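If you are new to this repository, start here. Below is one unmodified record pulled from the training split, so you can see the exact layout before writing a loader.
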Amino acid sequence: MTFFKKTLLILSLGIVSLAAAQKVDTKAKNILDETSANYKSKSTMYFKFVYGMGSNGKVSKNQTGIFYASKNKYKLKIMGNEQIFDGNKVYNINAEDMEVTIAKPNGSEAMLSPINYLDSYKKDYNISYTGNKNNLEVIKLTPTKKNGIKHVFLHINKAKKQIEKIEQYADNNDITTISISQYKENLKVEPSTFSFNKNLYKNYLITEL
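And here is the target side for that same chain:
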């Protein structure tokens, strides 16, 4: 399994649908609500980020990625690979293996988007405010039911109502981080950004699940 595929697999754990009682800290919830509403009010968004992976609480490998979003559509590019969601299907384009996999969304398709991650807190996590660190509000999310994740820390710029860093700790002590280095909003993005052009991948193995 390639690093890119492992990336998507690990991140997908973050938005598994669960049904259990929540413990919600009011201050933390208010910050998350305001941040979520801010992102949802934008017509388009662009994120440049550093994605990190490691074990025992230490990141040992970093990769730079970019993410475009327009309402429920998005395009993710990382490590020479792309993932596109056109509002209907998810297209995973693996340049190394020259493969394209097409599938209906299963809930993990936009895990790298702060919007979708914020939506998941409303039902899947216990929420607590842990304090201010480096001028960012830190909120801890703990799954209401076992899903492979121990806890997640969201580092939020309260004044801008933006997430600047996500830290995800797995039960096996693996760590996944997303550090946003650049953010732009309401950019003019061509509609073709969020569509899959089959003619560009004539030499690829295309599989539709």
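Two things worth knowing about this chain: The chain is about 15% helix and 45% strand. The radius of gyration is 17 Å.
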